Amino acid sequence: MEKIIERAKSLEDYIVKMRRDFHMHPELKYEEVRTSRIVEEELKSLGYEVVRTAKTGVIGILKGKTPTVALRADMDALPVQEENDVSYKSKIPGKMHACGHDAHTAMLLGAARILAELKDELKGTVKLIFQPAEEGGLGSKLIVEEGHLDDVDAIFGIHVWAELPSGTIGIREGPLLASADAFRVVIKGRGGHGAVPQFANDPIPAAMDIAQAFYKILVREVDPLEPVALSVTSIQAGNTFNVIPEKAELLGTFRTFNEEVRGYLTKRMGEIVEGYAKAHNVEASFDLTIEPIPPTINDKSLAEFARETLQPLGEIVEPKPTMGAEDFSLYLKKAPGLFLLLGIRNEEKGIIYPHHHPKFNVDESVLWKGSAAYALLAYRYLEESE
Q1: Do residues 67 and 154 lie in contact, with contact meaning Cβ atoms separated by under 8 Å?
Q2: Which alpha helices (DSSP H) does 197-257 contain, by range?
Q3: Which of 14, 111, 179, 246 has the most CB atoms around its CB within 10 Å?
Q4: What is the pLDDT averaged over residues 252-274?
């Protein structure tokens, strides 16, 4: 264990170098051609068996006996214009690693080096999953569908976290991140002149009533102690002051940790749209526009295991759940797993901006801890499970 930690510290320059390289060359979901090529080359040079997956994903395997432990890092960037004034600023206009996936990829490559050096001591098989398209592309779904989790006994993932102090490790059993759904409501009426509304069939009042009714579900139909978020984020209708439009459209999202609550919300929102359409004498439809992402529910025993295993790395806290979502949750439908957080907030360095912000950055001085955590969890899990 001490050897792994010391080796991770010695790899700090390598980890930072790789992170900066990925940061300067961000690639969006399923565009990660350059990133995956570099990852594949690194893994092959270390003696890993390499498998391509999910269009632009890479899996590195150190083959041994059972059990099998998997470690996951995501690789994709976001369509954000970077505003940081740093030497490693994004070179691609309109694209930026604004969520830290560049750090995840670099940390897992650091762990890959450590585990390759310990290959003869590993008591099982290690799979390193470099996943594409976490940001809205469900890259994890393709990896699961291709069967790469079928032989996995446990999977660990790490996310750098802007809300935690730099170097702090966040471990929480049970619900950590929420489910995610997106919806669209389309209301069709009859257009006309704003001065004679009696000759039109205005979709806007229906849109306003539907939006308000959605919010009332949360305060009158869902247990007040049940975490739920619902937001109507877009209302589009018409484009001038004196014309009643033919159509109105609502977009939004809802989040929960409870699958039953999610099902209830979906059902009630559809009923509300149908009822208000009838009341306003318009046509309306309610649709979910993305494949739902389930909540991320961490395994209790793996959380306890990780707290004990990672104690040598410093302070461990129990983070609050967040209504954000992660497609790591799809791996947890196939195998027990744990999604950890690594704090990267450093006010002295000005690293204070949230994920997806154009000034988001990470405290690179703690990234070696991510590599150490990956390697420690894999090594000790195989040792304990022998």
Answers
A1: yes
A2: 204-220
A3: 111
A4: 97
